[in-house]
Amino acid sequence: MPSGEDDLIARYFRPVATAPGALGLVDDAAVLQGQGDDLVVTTDAIVEGVHFLKDDPPDTVARKALRVNLSDLAAKGATPTGFVLTLALREVREAWLAPFAQALGEDVAQFGCPLLGGDTVSTPGPLMISITAFGRVPPGAMVRRDGAKPGDHLVVTGTIGDAALGLDVLKGGAAAPGSDTRARDILVSRYRVPQPRVALAQAVREHASAAMDVSDGLMGDLAKLCAASGVSAVVNAGALPLSAPARALLAERRVGLEALVSGGDDYEILCTIPENRLGPFTDAAARAGVPAAVIGTIEAGTSGPRLFDGTREISLSRLSYSHF
Amino acid sequence: MPSGEDDLIARYFRPVATAPGALGLVDDAAVLQGQGDDLVVTTDAIVEGVHFLKDDPPDTVARKALRVNLSDLAAKGATPTGFVLTLALREVREAWLAPFAQALGEDVAQFGCPLLGGDTVSTPGPLMISITAFGRVPPGAMVRRDGAKPGDHLVVTGTIGDAALGLDVLKGGAAAPGSDTRARDILVSRYRVPQPRVALAQAVREHASAAMDVSDGLMGDLAKLCAASGVSAVVNAGALPLSAPARALLAERRVGLEALVSGGDDYEILCTIPENRLGPFTDAAARAGVPAAVIGTIEAGTSGPRLFDGTREISLSRLSYSHF
Fold first, then answer.
1. Architecture of domain A4-137
2. ipTM (interface predicted TM)
3. In 3D, which of A44, A43, A48, A130 has the Cα closest to residue A90?
């Protein structure tokens, strides 16, 4: 006579728990066998109305919940090995849970990161999904935030600012009327479904002196990396990788550069690459199929990172997005 | 220029992150170094209004959030090694966060289980704390639910039903008027602050054929253990370990036995001990200072576990508590 929670787990989540250590989700705990490597642990939660919108489709919510964590693992140079899931639900609704679990299962297969266990709780409040994800690195090889050195190149993957514009589109903001349907779809998709740079993990591990994922805004996250490393940085605005829709909105002056470099939800990798590693790193990124742009340089000093348009410094009123 | 979240982490949680692998909480991830053992992973979340009450003091909320996870680790035979915390807050309020973090720090020290990392998110809804805790066991030594064999003794630690009565007291239910102040305090304390049986982990690991923690009701959790092991069980009602306040309420017929054996939040260990291990196990429990009572026997069969008062079977309308 299974309880509501047991039934829910058996129906929706057991198929996603493909690792032997998950014990078919019938136990209270999972096992991660020691393999002589280090385990990298990261936790990120998303809350309805805060990190995703009430009307976001359940499949994109599932993907975002897992992928924001996979993005962290990739930035640390770690290979995904599994995750545990806390799901806070107002109600058990087939129409929401079935596509959620289906999409989660697809991402589990795509990224080789199975469900190991979790907890499903009832809440009177907004939906919330908290995931703790695990990755493996050789002993001592996790890439930290605090290893950047003056002279290192500053590299970011993918494009910056699209997700913030996508959120703006969904909220009917300035970016909405300026875009055609296809551009809007691209931006919204970037907000709803991050593309974690798992394929770049090995290259980051082998070549980066410091790395983190960009989740709260490029300039704010760079400020954190600089503070942890005890360095400063200059960023060349002209080198920032922008998508075609972002470039169009910028050209029409519907959005400013600040919205792009301080907006959240990019889930790209920001890393610092020593001069003698830049060639091997960009080669590895190209082989992995991940766009990587050199956007600036690490400098000595403890002042915050600065953004330049040619020789003119662009002053920013905010660096990142904060929910508090 | 720290964001609200960074400031919050630095003020309240960095002092609790005493493990080297936490990297002072300045990184996106933590490291658990391989030590040749297996890592046991468990996740439990508590939600305001569901697993704790809005008026529960912040220090008891912190302890409950961590201890429900420590209870799982102990039941798996694992030694705690650290945890990650997801905290969903409506607002950043010193008067709540300071005692919460203070109590968490005390439990970290008491149980040797430091904070490794986490995520703090804003929510418009109820407070929620999700913890993923890690424990270590020698390779292959995690105690599972599925190892119980006919003839094994059924053992439970501590006393059963107090937490359910404590919740009843807080809600002004049948248990409230029947207890004196001291009894009420004992029961409420059992609801708010579980006593995880961390001291018994080694004995469980060395002697139990199966184990789990009792969190949703003794009989319901026993049913899960039996189902996982493919066995049945008989429980002797007269052998159930009850506290003095519970005995008094039972004697006055203010509460029935069913409320005790199906009520949630016990956080005791239920385990099965083979005949030839019972002596060593009870000796080890006594040395660890953990009360452990033999309450029944595992039997062959696949029917649900049964509760007997002498030769009379007590039928139960429910076995456990479910939030769904």
1. 2-Layer Sandwich (3.30)
2. 0.91
3. A48
